[in-house]
């Protein structure tokens, strides 16, 4: 049990640091109303989690990478907060694009990751 906790904690530290650095870099490089940083982070996380699951990795790797790293790298709460902010700013076209693209692309990329994991890993 202790090993599992350490694996998740180590993965989480790396995931949150990666998200912080990548998010700040994307926001500086491409400033816009559309929450591109969270969008790209959540989509890459969906793909990576699908790839991990599709690969059939053992439980320790799934805890380290899936639960720890990807769990803290992706962010459902920021996605929801940014959606509410877009609504409050009356940027409804951006809001609906963000919601639709996030859900549809996230599911597609997770599925693609699972498929590629099964085929190549």
Automatic annotation (TrEMBL):
GO terms for biological process: cellular detoxification of fluoride. Na(+) binds at residues 71, 74. GO terms for molecular function: fluoride channel activity; metal ion binding. Na(+) is not transported, but it plays an essential structural role and its presence is essential for fluoride channel function. Keywords: Cell membrane, Ion channel, Ion transport, Membrane, Metal-binding, Sodium, Transmembrane, Transmembrane helix, Transport. It catalyses: fluoride(in) = fluoride(out). One of its GO terms (cellular component) is plasma membrane. It is a multi-pass membrane protein. The chain crosses the membrane at residues 6-22, 34-54, 60-79, 100-120. It is found in: Cell membrane. Belongs to the fluoride channel Fluc/FEX (TC 1.A.43) family. PANTHER family: FLUORIDE EXPORT PROTEIN 1-RELATED, FLUORIDE-SPECIFIC ION CHANNEL FLUC 2. Fluoride-specific ion channel. Important for reducing fluoride concentration in the cell, thus reducing its toxicity. This is Fluoride-specific ion channel FluC. The gene is fluC.
């Amino acid at each position: 049990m202790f090993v599992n906790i350490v694996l998740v904690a180590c993965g989480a530290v790396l995931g949150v640091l990666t998200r912080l650095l990548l998010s700040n870099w994307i926001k500086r490089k491409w400033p816009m109303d559309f929450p591109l940083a969270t969008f790209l982070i959540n989509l890459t996380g969906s793909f990576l989690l699908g790839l991990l699951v599709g690969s059939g990795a053992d439980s320790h790797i799934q805890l380290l990478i899936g639960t720890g790293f990807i769990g803290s790298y992706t962010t459902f709460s920021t996605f929801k907060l940014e959606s509410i902010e877009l609504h409050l700013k009356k940027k409804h076209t951006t809001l609906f694009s963000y919601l639709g693209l996030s859900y549809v692309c996230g599911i597609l990329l997770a599925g693609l990751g699972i498929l590629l994991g099964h085929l190549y890993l």
